[in-house]
Design a protein that fits this description.
With 208 residues, this protein is mainly α. The chain is built from 9 helices and no strands.
Length: 208
Amino acid sequence: MTEWIVRLIEWGGYWGIIVLMALENIFPPLPSEAIMGLGGILVARGAMQFWPLLLAGTLGTVVGNYFWFLLGDRFGYQRLEPLVRRWGRWLTVEWHDVERASHFLRRHGQWVVFGLRFSPFFRTLISVPAGLSHMNHARFLVFTAGGSAIWNALLILGGHWLGATLADAERWLIYLTVAIGAGTLVVYLWRLSTWKPRGPVEQDALGP
């Protein structure tokens, strides 16, 4: 996968970064750590520049998250609920969890969207409850862009350090990406194997 990412970056340049980062947030198994990390390596080697790379990565992140935000905003609770109740097991999510996330978001606002941009597991998922709660679009975009810019800058700097320190930086980045992917898969399989739906009484007692 990393070789394919390198080729797309080389072919598309900053536009390739935008496309990859948008896809990373629409289809999370494509790792942002690899995309922006490789970009950072290219910055260290003089093939890219920090600020245009950061702008491209952040723009792609915002586009991908806005896709999920619009899905929640336009789809709405009534049409989303049957899908979650039917297929939620494979995401280890129940409708109760969606309601709780939306309730939490309504109470704590845009800072949740900003803060969760630093979470590998929730930075994309939070966009759906934000849309379901009909958060102001401009506010969502601003706080998504702010949090994403900081996260992407850290990834670029990490890649830059690898590129400036190690001759075979790409190989070490592959190891890191595989480790992150394996860890994410292990957590998901553990959640899937231990996941048990709540009974109707328990859900009603907990409330949204």
